[in-house]
Specification:
This protein has helices spanning 55-62, 77-80, 87-93, 103-112, 175-181, 204-213, 230-234, and strands spanning 2-7, 37-41, 46-49, 69-71, 97-101, 128-132, 137-139, 142-150, 155-161, 164-167, 186-190, 218-222, 241-243, 249-251. It is an alpha/beta fold. It has one domain: 4-Layer Sandwich (Metallo-beta-lactamase, Chain A). The radius of gyration is 17 Å and the shape is globular. The N and C termini lie close together (5 Å).
């Protein structure tokens, strides 16, 4: 199984517009981050997790040619704004794209992208077979397990796909979810910043504690703010935890 990080940045992307955050490039491409999203490939299946504002650009630079399944973690704009960019993948499939998410996200998608659904569906618009995921499912050669977490203001769905656990935008990971993650070979986890503590996101030191507690062989951090300089922060991390960066591809 392969995982490509399509984006690893926060809701505003990195660098941030409008003189807010770190705007000056460091010269290191790992410090330029599209909104957080991922592409998982197995011998039989192509899965995308979240479709943020740069989704079209992300698919082009990663070389995505087909999508068999879409997983949406939650309804914040930086995770669903690029849904329209699924149209060419729909045209190739000629059938609706299976999509798993939370009940809140499903309702938000149907409201904000109302033209994709129902009797007044716009011809040629994205065609999703969107469902709430409550229990583990077998999808082709992938066992997919929902990983409920708390964003501080709303429920978010992480996903375990075979030996990969993927969690973003979490503040609290319940004990039951931690047990579902345990035994994964790779964990992807949000690590917003080094300090201070944040109301809705896990910080980097907190993420290291979680990865260590669960004894995950390798953890990659995403949803990284503009204040995190890859080279500097990487030097402070233990061997089993790394900062992910856009277009990084790993084997699991």
């Amino acid at each position: 199984m392969k995982l490509t990080f399509l984006g690893t940045g926060t809701s505003m992307g990195v660098p941030v517009a409008g003189n807010f955050g770190r705007e000056i490039p460091t010269g290191d491409s790992r410090d330029e981050r599209y909104r957080t999203s991922a592409w998982v490939r197995t011998p039989e299946t192509s899965i995308v997790i979240d479709t943020g504002p740069e989704f079209r650009l992300q698919t082009l630079r990663a070389g995505i040619r087909s999508i068999d399944l879409l997983l949406l973690t939650h309804e914040h704009t930086d995770h669903i704004a690029g849904l329209d960019d699924l149209r060419p993948f729909n045209y190739k499939r000629k059938i609706p794209l299976p999509t798993f998410t939370t009940s809140g996200c499903m309702e938000a998608v149907k409201s904000r992208f109302h033209y994709m659904f129902g009797d007044k569906k716009t011809p040629g618009s994205v065609d999703l077979d969107i469902k709430v995921m409550k229990e583990p499912k077998q999808f082709q050669d992938c066992k997919i397990t929902p990983l409920p977490v708390d964003h501080g203001v709303m429920p978010v769905m992480g996903f375990r796909i075979n030996d990969l656990s993927y969690i973003t935008d979490a503040k609290i990971i319940p004990k039951a979810t931690r047990e579902l993650v345990r035994g994964s070979k790779v964990l992807v986890l949000n690590g917003l910043q080094w300090e201070p503590r944040h109301k809705t996101h896990i910080t980097i030191p907190e993420a290291v504690e979680i990865a260590t507690e669960l004894e995950i062989p390798k953890t990659y951090l995403v949803h990284i703010s503009s204040y995190v300089i890859h080279k500097k922060i990487s030097a402070r991390l233990p061997e089993h935890v790394e900062l992910a960066y856009d277009q990084l591809t790993i084997e699991i």
